[in-house]
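Troubleshooting entry. Yesterday's outputs looked truncated, so today I'm pasting the complete records for two proteins to confirm everything comes through intact. If either block looks cut off, that's the bug. Protein one:
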Amino acid sequence: MLRPFSELPDHSRVWIYQSNRKFSDQEVILIKNQVDLFLSNWTAHGADLEAGAEVRYNRFIVLGLNQENASASGCSIDASVRFVQELQEQLGVDLLDKMNVTFYSGAYIAHKTLLEFRKMAKNKSVSKDTIVFNNLVNTKKDYIEHWEVPAFESWHNRFLS
């Protein structure tokens, strides 16, 4: 059951998929349409899942699920991953590689491999105050409050000296 992401409760579960490149405006429209279609039909053990999504900064796809009435099961989570894999193939982007880091570089959003980010930290090209995207947040509330944070407040801190 599709809901506007903004109407999902703060305790809703979120999954964040970052792209290795910025989406065009046309791709964002395509993504929104396909995500809405998928979420409209997303179920767990025959029960409709109350879910919503948003595309942020033409780079991140955020799926949210209110688990009060029905929770995602292994099969429904697998279905969402298959859907994201299909999007990935259709758009020619990487959405599932968790070994990449996205952060602000001035006014721009940069995307680097973890190895490149570690080198940048060692060379002081990024610092503890660099704003990073912590895609490991689990709830909508954490997404709102702790997704864009200084590196020292997230798991990225382990790479900073």
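Protein two, checking that the full record survives here as well:
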Amino acid sequence: MNRSLLSATVIAALGGLLFGFDTAVISGTTQWLKEIYQLGPFWLGFTVASALIGTIVGAITAGRPADRFGRRNVLFEIALLYFFSALGSAFAWDWTSFLFFRFIGGLGVGGASVVSPMYIAEISPARLRGRLVAVTQFNIVFGILLAFFSNYVVAQFGLGEIEWRWMFGVEIVPAVAFFFLLFLTPRSPRWLVTQNRLYEAREVLQRLGTDTGDVEREIDDIQASLNLARHSIREPFFRKAYRQPIMLAVAIAAFNQLSGINALMYYAPHIFKMAGAGEDSALLQSVAVGGTNLVFTMLAMGVIDHLGRRKLMLAGSIGYIISLGATACAFYVYGTEFTTAGSIVVLLSLLVFIASHAFGQGAVIWVFISEIFPNRVRARGQALGSFTHWFMAALISWTFPIVAEQSGGNAFAFYAVMMILQLLWVVIIMPETKGVPLEEIQKRLGIE
């Protein structure tokens, strides 16, 4: 793997690091927000989901600017959204202003979930594409771990009512770094071809490398896949020709959130306190969740291009079912009167759950969605997958406090049932895409 390709991948994937940080940082602030703004379960869920509403908007609207202005230019805009969100959330003067700045951050997260993996898929040779796109997921989980750890460190200073402001403000530093590092990355060669900027596309491919080592052949393959004589880059997206990749993207994105992963990401300390942990212990256990997530994401990155996407999804689905079932049973047995043994069962079960997610869905989702759409509609396909993911994330995050207040067992039992359905989907429907050039995948899905 050449240095230019690795450097461009890591920098683009910083959008994922900020995505993960922004997603998880609020988990350490929910108790403060609840007290300061006097929020009940419904409005606490809405406050947490406010960023996700922005994420939905960011995901569904990122595709067209990425097609028009280029993937890299949109990443610059995303970096600015992260910066202003972190600054505004830290200095919010009331609940409404806080919601607004969290919404702005959500726009950045939604955009990053579309553009970062798409950009990396388009600069990567097929033999490396799985692990390189998975760098985005690695950075997402690294960002989550940083957020959990940052929250724990900030809490040790005993800052009182301004503690939550510092938790949000820390994000300013990586947002600024991301913006300036983007100047070192090239434009997507596939986007350059769509703009008929073939000379620039050749330069980028020579710098980053191709599957065959033949730059002219790669350009010809990209042009053939675009087939602009028959297919306009502005052609309708929701049409019969694209039905199969659309259904695959919607299914994998919906199942990702129906696992309950974002309930854990947003409410990890709250869940551990429900299971009998103290304040500091709950924050520390959240760090353990983030660390497990990181380790198993690294394992998945090492094997995704060898074992393939389906095998990782199968292993993850089985792990989901076992761990979520055990967590639900623990809440049914102990209710609100957890013993030490019950607390340990919940902690271990949720560590198995996060390991299953990291090794399966977490590693596969953004790789898979970035692969299954033709070049001419990839931005819109990625946007649809991200929109579905974040719409379901908002739904799960908003409803979890309400359901969990009645019964933690019901929430986790529901997630377990959904993962049984995911297992069936993987076994019966999901195709394998490992090692297949992007231009060949569309042929295998019956797209001319």
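Both blocks look complete. Sanity check on protein two: The chain has a mean pLDDT of 86.
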